[in-house]
Design a protein that fits this description.
By secondary structure, this protein is mostly beta strands. Among the domains are: 58 residues, no CATH class; 158 residues, no CATH class. It contains one helix and 36 strands. It has a 16-stranded parallel β-sheet that branches. A ten-stranded parallel β-sheet has the order 7-10-13-16-19-21-23-26-30-34, with no helix packed on it. Strands 1-2 form a two-stranded antiparallel sheet. Strand 1 and strand 2 form a beta hairpin. The radius of gyration is 25 Å and the shape is globular. It starts with 34 loop residues before the first strand and ends in a 39-residue tail after the last strand.
Length: 425
């Protein structure tokens, strides 16, 4: 595809491959391509000299004169590039550093401590940009209001005495966490990496690891997790009671108390997640435990890989439904090779049915279900992608609408999607 008269121009796709719109001023250009490149006398989205036409989640003018999302902090005036490609508004950002001053004004030229930045949050300043490094907290960091923490390679660690969470999200707060790591909470009962109560919490590209209790505990919160990792916590990785939880394209691993527990009147949507090597032979469950669901709601568990988790004797180590009073359907999942001392069943529970899933080595009845070795690429090195010869290839529900897999690869690559979190390329 090329633009007639401009064969080197890469923007012609904006006009559908037709000839570019000639111009001598911006007023002659349509809204979709509002800038006149006077050297080439043609309308474009933006130019290096006039990048102002770009904004929203495509704030950067690329080399091809089209707007794109930011890829690095340096491309933003605020020095704060967000996971969706947008730049944070410079007027809303406070700047903190591990060695920041407790009295500084939190500007780029006078960075402050994290606690100082939290104290300065108001109706205008709502984003804290954290420099890379270790932030040692004297105790639980309470976030009783709305705030956005952005911190590539920033680690928040509770280092104070006593017990408690590392981060505590207060009632009615609206908290967004991007890129940072949360660890070091203390106390078997309350030492969660993040505790949330009747609030809204969004976590994107976040790591929650090494906490004495669970990774994330939620009571009546609206939780959304994406592209994140919850690992090596001594309690339950993700423990949710009430409210809602959405988790996509994330990894749950080595959480000793089990990966995910969902209790009560909770809406959930869990898709394209890797849930492996959680649980313990002495503890209650391994992969997913859903319990006390009595009413209808929005409940989705699709295209997940649940493998090599452990559970105590008599407990299904893959997925367990307990006191579920309303029908639940699980589709297009791998539940394979999970281990329990005294049961060979991977899944169990009334009112929970399975479709187009690979459950084994003991098969489970249901349309499209298999009980075959998934053929993971390299178990020794933790690679749970599927080999090209996997029997799960093209074996998921042909009517499934999930557009991408765990890595962002398109679904389907073949005649139908592949079962589990990975789509074979």
């Amino acid at each position: 595809m090329f633009c007639e008269g401009h064969p080197d121009d890469q923007i012609c796709s904006i006009t559908g491959g037709s000839a570019p719109i000639s111009c001598t001023s911006d007023t002659q250009c349509p809204m979709a391509i509002p800038i006149c490149d006077k050297q080439r006398t043609m309308c474009v989205q933006c130019t290096a000299a006039e990048p102002g036409a770009c904004g929203g989640d495509t704030p950067v003018c690329g080399m091809d004169d089209t707007c794109r999302g930011c890829a690095a902090d340096a491309e933003c005036a605020s020095l704060t590039c967000l996971p969706d490609g947008a730049c944070a508004d410079a007027g809303t950002v406070l700047y903190a550093a591990p060695d920041g001053s407790a009295a500084a004004n939190c500007r780029t030229t006078a960075k402050c401590s994290l606690l100082r930045a939290v104290a300065l949050i108001d109706g205008t300043k709502s984003t804290i940009r954290l420099d890379p490094g270790l932030y040692l907290l004297p105790g639980t960091l309470a976030l009783p209001f709305s705030v956005h923490l952005v911190g590539r390679d920033a680690v928040l660690e509770r280092a104070g005495s006593g017990t408690g969470e590392t981060l505590l999200v207060g009632v009615d707060a609206d908290i967004v966490l991007d890129y940072l790591s949360v660890r070091g909470a203390d106390g078997d009962a309350v030492g969660h990496g993040i505790g949330c109560h009747e609030a809204t919490l969004t976590a994107r590209e976040v790591t929650i690891e090494g906490n004495a209790a669970g990774g994330l505990w939620s009571d009546q919160c609206a939780v959304a997790i994406s592209h994140s990792r919850i690992a090596s916590n001594r309690g339950v990785g993700l423990d949710v009671a009430g409210g809602s939880v959405t988790m996509t394209r994330s990894t749950m691993t080595a959480n000793q108390g089990g990966a995910i527990r969902i209790v009560g009147r909770t809406d959930y949507d869990l898709e394209n997640n890797l849930i492996v090597k959680n649980g313990d032979a002495a503890l209650g469950f391994g992969g997913l435990w859903i319990m006390s669901i009595a009413m209808d709601g929005n409940r989705v568990f699709e295209f997940n890989t649940v493998a090599f988790n452990q559970a105590a004797g008599g407990v299904p180590p893959g997925v367990e439904c307990d006191f579920v009073m309303t029908p639940l359907v699980f589709s297009n999942n791998i539940v394979f090779g999970n281990v329990s001392a005294s049961t060979a069943n991977q899944v169990d529970g009334a009112n929970c049915t399975w479709r187009y899933s690979d459950i084994g080595p003991v098969a489970v009845a249901g349309p499209g279900n298999l009980a075959a070795d998934p053929e993971f690429a390299d178990l020794m090195h933790g690679d749970y992608h599927l080999m090209a010869t996997s029997p799960l290839r093209d074996a998921a529900d042909p009517a499934a609408t999930q557009a991408v897999d765990l890595d962002g690869d398109s679904r389907p690559e073949g005649a139908a999607p592949d079962i589990g979190a990975d789509e074979i390329k």
